[in-house]
Structure formats: C-alpha cells, structure tokens
Description:
By secondary structure, this protein is mainly alpha-helical. The chain contains five helices and four strands; from the N terminus they run ααααββαββ. It has helices spanning 5-29, 32-88, 94-175, 180-193, 214-222, and strands at 197-201, 204-205, 229-230, 237-240. The longest helix has 82 residues, at 94-175. The protein is rod-shaped, with a radius of gyration of 42 Å.
Amino acid sequence: xxxxxxxxxxxxxxxxxxxxxxxxxxxxxxxxxxxxxxxxxxxxxxxxxxxxxxxxxxxxxxxxxxxxxxxxxxxxxxxxxxxxxxxxxxxxxxxxxxxxxxxxxxxxxxxxxxxxxxxxxxxxxxxxxxxxxxxxxxxxxxxxxxxxxxxxxxxxxxxxxxxxxxxxxxxxxxxxxxxxxxxxxxxxxxxxxxxxxxxxxxxxxxxxxxxxxxxxxxxxxxxxxxxxxxxxxxxxxxxxxxxxxx
Length: 246
C-alpha cells in the first residue's frame, strides 16, 4: 500500500487521539465512585433488611405486651368479681368460702406472674425500640451518603463524557483527512491493538517497544517514502519521521 508521507504522519495524530479515548473509557469503567456506589448500595440494602427485622421484633413484642396486659385485665376483673362476692356475704357455705378465697389468692398470684412477664417484655421492647432507632439513623445517614456519592459519580461521568465527545469530534476531523484505504488498514489494526500506527523512533517501534533489527531497518531505508511499512513484531503501521534514526 502507498500513501503520502504527510498522510502517514497524520496517523500519529489519530493514534494519539485513540489513546486518549482508550484512557478515558478505562477511566469511565474504573471510576472509584462506581465501586463506592455499589459497595454503599449493598451496605444500605443489608441495613434496610436489619431495620425491617428490628421493626418486626419490636412489633412482635408490642403485640405480646398488649396480649399479656389484656390477660392481666381479665385476671384482675375476675378477681374483683370474686372479691365482690366474698364481701357481699352472698357465699355462706364454709366450703364455698374457702374455695372462693383460694381462687382469689390464685388469681392474685397469676396477676403477679403476668405483671412480671410484662416488665420483662417491656425491657426487651425498650432494647428493640432503641435498636430500631439506631439502625434507622444509620440507614438514613447511609442513604444521604449514597446520594452524595451518586452526585459525585454523575458529575465525574459527565465530565468524562464531555471529554470523550470532544476527543471523538477531533478524531473524526483527523480521520476525514486520511485516505480511505490507509484509514481502513489503520482501523482494522486498531481493533486488535487499540491503535493501528506507531512512530519509528531511533530504530524502535513505539507501539510494541521492540528495537528493529539491522535488516529490518535497512529494508525500511530502502522503501519509498510513500510506501506504507509495518512493524514485523506487532504489525502496526510504522510511521517514519526525522526521529526514526534511518
């Protein structure tokens, strides 16, 4: 393939822009805020699950306390009715009186036991409510942090996308100045090597960094200026300049 030396040198400008695009794309994929956002999102999801579990426990304890308090009221009401019967003198039989007094005493013990249970539940419920408040505060704080990370991420991505758009626009203009056949070869090589051309500098291919042999350099010296030469090692287009050392 043949192409004017100036057109070949233009490939170096294209290659430089492609390297910039490659670096920007890599930066976009590896933006720290992306990983930070994913990690924080996962933490927030775990924390949200913990909040639900804590709220469920607190709710269960509240219902359990309400049930036991209802049982206490039932026992207290029954004991009050029995005490009223005892005080009214309606029960005269010694056997019935003893049975009624025994039942009142039993109900009193039952009431005491239930009130002890209520106290124990209240202690557990207080701890559960405190845990709900603690986890909820952590969740809200982490949610705010996630929003801040998202804002930083979006701002960074927008800046990268702006640079990408500008660089691709410049690349399009440079590519439009290169002959189609030469550009086609470059693009084919770019698919394999990120950039399809490299400078020959002081006898070294700047694409693969390999120093060319004397025979290879002699063959390039003998080639016409408009001959498109390739690196034998990486197969990129070698662009000759005054720095090539030929």
